[in-house]
Amino acid sequence: MFSVEIYIVGFVIVLLTQLITIYRWRNPKCNGIILPPGSLGFPFIGECFELIFPAHSYDVHPFIKKRLQRYGPLFRTNIAGRNVVVSADHEFNNYILQQEEKLVVRSYLDLFEKLFKQSGELRPNGLALHKYMKTSALSRFGLECIKKSLLLQFDQLVRTTLHSWSTQDRVDLQHASVAMFGEFGTNQLCICDPETSKQLVDNYINGTNAIMSFPLNIPGTTYYKSLKDKEKVMKMLKEIVSERIASPQDENNYKDDLLSKLIKDIDTVDFVTPEYIIQILFSLMFATFQTIPVILVIAVKFISENPAVLRELIAEHEEIIAKRKNSDSSVTWEEYKSMTFTLQVVNEALRLGNTVPGFLRKAVKDIKVRGYTIPAGWAIMACHSVLHLDPNIYKDPLKFDPSRWKDAKPEFISKNLKPFGGGIKQCAGADFSRASLCIFLHVFVTKYRWTIVEGGEIIQNPIMHIKNGLHISLSEKRD
């Protein structure tokens, strides 16, 4: 009898402890401040499962949409142990992106942190580190480089790649475009032999699968395997960097890529070390290998589903070719700038192709907004996906309609289209992303016919991608 009572008392104590833990978790100490409305979910995991559950749509993710309808444009949640305020307040989001290194700093959820967090990012000189990284990226992907060499290089790669695709019965555009941008990206970032380049891209794509999985780091989970693949990438990059540093940087050994510039800066910039170089290369690979290919696939999908858009696109590019002395010559800067409708198509693909639901920052001070306070240390997700799909800004927002950009003023575009972020930490590859998509579409629609064989379903969990790829059959046009 005595032992049964002990068990009952023990059970009650455990139950009360759990209830107290859950209560404290869902009702954090506020020190008199008013938090945005919402819920922190369950201890340690928060509301993570609902966020990573696949949403078969390119609309605002259901996790966000449901809470916006319930709480309004600002709500609190918890993702895998991290307290987050999600904001769909466009004015506040613009403000936050202008407050880098003042009120906020770059942040990562635990789902991303082990993949992308850079040492030094949150130190007082984080702004200097970012400025250096952005300047370095612009030295390879900025406007001057696009004009001088990238247009020609990418044009030639696209022509070679598309011809190769046309010799195959079918091609998974999602996988094949990653390989194409991967080849181009490695040649700009760190030139290496084709086999090493392919392994680097493959391991990188496998490694970043962790983004779409629950951060449970035990053997057998996707997250665990992805982190192991990331370790392989970091090891490969370390070997590439170490080998380059050890090689004499003379005319015979010099390679024209970003890595050569970074190595040269080791002696003149105090925070540039071999380890930091590896982190820079890894971060830049994400945009090159992952983000742009997804937008390309989304653009092809929507163009294929809208014959009128395809006809207008072909007409624009055939007019460009008709003005050339040599119809097979590569795209010039002047021709690229004349692709008015193509840029509208690209803008529309960027608007609908919200590869991530929002941009993350971390509050370094308490921030007051709409009568609430976001405590220092909490993350803020500025949801550009809500902006891009706002029916008050875009009529019929889920419709693929490039013509909506026809008369759009630059001020409207800069305010309401933010696929590359904003503020001082806007993506340095924005201009190259647009240019590369236009070059691809130029060759694609003028030289080839294609049909979609299967696939093309867009899903988010929470990263947007194409379920089972987009398989196409491609053939050259005959005069």
Total strands: the figure is 10
Helix fraction bin? 40-55%
Count of helices? Answer: 18
Structural class call reads alpha+beta
Separation of termini? 95 Å
Short key terms for the protein model shown above:
about 475 residues, alpha+beta, five-stranded mixed β-sheet, three-stranded antiparallel β-sheet, globular
What does it look like?
The protein is α+β, with helices and mostly antiparallel strands. Helices cover 53% and strands 12% of the residues. It has helices at residues 2-26, 48-52, 62-71, 90-97, 110-116, 126-141, 143-166, 173-189, 194-207, 222-246, 258-265, 274-304, 307-322, 333-337, 340-352, 384-388, 410-416, 430-447; strands at residues 74-79, 82-87, 104-106, 171-172, 359-363, 367-369, 372-374, 379-382, 448-460, 464-476. It starts with a helix and ends with a strand.
Provide a concise account of the structure shown:
The chain is 53% helix and 12% strand. It is built from 18 helices and ten strands.
Write the layout of secondary structure elements.
Layout: H1 2-26, H2 48-52, H3 62-71, E1 74-79, E2 82-87, H4 90-97, E3 104-106, H5 110-116, H6 126-141, H7 143-166, E4 171-172, H8 173-189, H9 194-207, H10 222-246, H11 258-265, H12 274-304, H13 307-322, H14 333-337, H15 340-352, E5 359-363, E6 367-369, E7 372-374, E8 379-382, H16 384-388, H17 410-416, H18 430-447, E9 448-460, E10 464-476
Parallel strand pairs: 2-8
Antiparallel strand pairs: 1-2, 3-5, 4-10, 5-8, 6-7, 9-10
